[in-house]
Design brief:
Elements lengths: L1 H6 L2 H29 L1 H13 L4 H35 L4 H7 L6 H22 L3 H48 L3 H11 L4 H13 L4 H6 L1 H4 L3 H16 L3 H25 L1 H24 L1 H4 L1 H4 L1 H25 L4
Helix pairs in contact: 4-12, 6-7, 7-8, 7-13, 8-9, 12-13, 14-17
Length: about 350
Amino acid sequence: MSGFEDLLTPEVTGIAVAVLVMLAVGGIIYSLFQPALSGTKRRDQRVQAVAARPQSETQRKQLRDTDRRKKNIQEQLKEFEERQRAKQDKQQKVSLKTRMEQAGLAWEMSHFIMFSAVSGVVFLILGFIASSNFLVIGGFGFAGAFGFPRWYVSFKRKRRFNAFLDELPNGVDIIVRGVKAGLPLADCIKVVAREAREPVATEFRKITETQIMGVTLSEAVSKLPDRVPVAEANFFAIVVAIQQKAGGGLAEALSNLSKVLRGRKAMKGKIKALSAEAKSSAGIIGALPFVVGGIMFVVAPDYISLLWTTSTGHLIMGGCLFWMFIGIMIMRSMINFDF
């Protein structure tokens, strides 16, 4: 025993422990990767795939048709994404004439110039009434000639887009009912052009007029987001184009689209209701300095008149208006939600 104990030196014991650990790790690795190395796992997967494969020719044909339709839809979506990026690049540089068309104004550039001139004259008169300072009068004239007309076009454009979004789900529902009744899509669009409210009726009437000129229905519908650049119009154009090229149930697709449009409308209303308190607070805070200034002008005109009769008052008013503008823009960015 003493000879055996002499062999169990610390070096031999360490080597033996290392060998045992290596054998244990090797056994664990072999047990984990043995199915993959031997091909058993690959064989089981192949057997499961063959078992899950449709056995009848009809099932295989339906599967091939489904795969083909999925590929077509993926290609269409990729094409629409590229087209949408190009449209977004164009929309960043929308011309004034296009903005007037989107606002529903049947104006030429000459009409806009005349409107700007009249607006500039009116604002100049208001400037003469408000102050005798030529800088103030010039500021009024500049705002009337260059600012107010463009603001008016943007206001009309936004209001028309909101009216379009309110009526579009009803128009889509009309198309769904017509398609379920057996009417062609083109006839359903004509019905919407006759029965829907403005501006949906006008936009769908343009689709039918474009189609009469020889343009295909999908191409005529694809021009709708150009005239009304909102996400909902783009959704409608995508659904119609995919159905025209890839097939499928149009009534079901448009019914789902109608649910999506109404869901977005409900979400917009909910966001508007939740942000109403913040907007009211911002309006009160923004109007408070002017209300207090008006009250002070009525109560103590000599005291408040120092703001516009002295150079120091002008600097104070300029600084206050600048910081008020910064605060209003910050509050506006906080209460405006994009979804």
